[in-house]
Amino acid sequence: SERTFIAVKPDGVQRGLVGKIVSRFEERGYKLVAIKAVVPSRALAEEHYADLRARPFFRGLVEYMTNGKAPVVAMVWEGKDVVRQGRAMIGATNPLESSPGSIRGQYCVSVGRNIIHGSDSFESATKEIQLWFGKPGEVI
Ligand code: ATP
Ligand code: MG
């Protein structure tokens, strides 16, 4: 058993998709460990997507995550293979390439408004859970 970091992005929150997304993880059999609505600071969003700093869409991505039109709903989910399975449930980065049964494949069409984030590895999950939920020295 392991944990992953999942976040409903502001467009997913604004569109009222939090309940549907939570239900999909619950119905799969995963356990909700932590959840909060938060408008991330620019520093938090930049650190969260630090690997993408050099990409042309980085500024727009940080603006999208932080503009406050709606919060991000940040979550930690736990269960067997949840990092990899969570990514499979979410679908491909570009929703036009996501399988129709995936979350992105069912609910969105734009790579710049793809409604949900999931950690891409165990190492990313550990980092992201600490970044979004951890105070220094605190373990959830
Ligand atoms: P996430 O990290 O949000 O779960 P991902 O792991 O599927 O998404 P990444 O390569 O990490 O994909 O990209 C992070 C996010 O950056 C994407 O989810 C999307 O919101 C945005 N993004 C990626 N590629 C593009 C692009 N070509 N144009 C605009 N936005 C993009
Ligand atoms: Mg990613």
UniProtKB/TrEMBL annotation:
Keywords of the record: Kinase, Transferase
Keyword Transferase: yes
E.C. code: 2.7.4.6
Record-level GO BP terms: CTP biosynthetic process; GTP biosynthetic process; UTP biosynthetic process
Sequence positions that bind ATP: K9, F57, R87, T93, R104, N114
Molecular-function GO terms, alphabetical: nucleoside diphosphate kinase activity
Active site annotation, chain numbering: H117
Domain Nucleoside diphosphate kinase-like: 1-140
Superkingdom to which the source organism belongs: Eukaryota
Reported cofactor(s): Mg(2+)
Similarity field: Belongs to the NDK family.
UniProt protein name: Nucleoside diphosphate kinase
Species name: Jimgerdemannia flammicorona
Residues of the full protein shown: 115 to 254 of 268
